[in-house]
Write the structure tokens for this entry.
Amino acid sequence: MEISSVLQGGYHHPLARQWQARSALTKEMLMYPLFITDDPNAEVEIKALPGQKRWGVDKLEGFLRPLVKKGLKSVILFGVPLKCQKDDRGTPADDPEGPVVQAIKRISSLFPDVYIATDVCLCEYTSHGHCGVLNADGTINTPPSVARIAEVAVSYAKAGAHCVAPSDMMDGRVKAIKQGLIDAGLANKCTLMSYSAKFASSMYGPFREAAGSVPSFGNRKCYQLPPNARGLARRAIKRDVNEGADIIMVKPAMPYLDIISDARELASEHPLACYQVSGEYAMIVAGANAGVYELKTMAFESVEGMIRAGATIILTYFTPEFLDWLDE
């Protein structure tokens, strides 16, 4: 046997196998998505997302305190308004009494060391369920959409969010948000994490049930990226870097490891996030329940692929489990 053919000596021991990784999952890399509803006492299971719930602000302390003790470092908030009057421009999105603003303030007061990111979109708050303001023919009207998204982002920053994360995929919204943060004197106090490469995926179904954000007509294929569009994703990443994004995100994660790798190349000086979306999570859980594999092993394998591709921040519903598993 040729000397160069012998590789197994380099990974025969468990510790030696760990050394083969360029980087490994840590608790600091995890960001936990939370669904916040406008019933302050809500604790409602989400059938399509096993183990996940919609939370009211009065239930957050009891849920989060054990996780914070285990090492939870960051969360990202998604509003789920069930009682508000929705309209065509998403007016309730930044209501001071709405679920997101109230959750920012509650979590900040209870857990001052927890990093709070907020998803910024209009789909949960518009009467039509789309992510922006519409023209009369039902197409996206970009300028007022961008202006409204920027207003909401700045409102969340003023409420105390450490990070605003626009997921709407409107052209130009990163630049508008950054300018809004500058004008509000908050650009040096609030991170802008852009969903730069967000694809029109089939894997958002459980999330849309959880957030109540299904469009009332049509789909989002004219503003989210086509799944086959690597070139568009690369252009979007470069655009958002130039417009002032502090963190770049790819969503979903597992089917788009090539895009994560591209983002690492194109935004090499930026933190790189990826979102293991609801469909990915539900698929892994379903496979484990069917006996296809062991849940912990598959959860780690899925996330290790994202890290190997270049991700440094992982948004995942497995965060509570990882907090335990990483201590074992």
About this structure: The beta strands are 30-37, 43-45, 53-55, 74-80, 115-120, 163-166, 191-198, 247-251, 272-276, 313-316. Residues 6 and 166 are 49 Å apart (CA to CA).
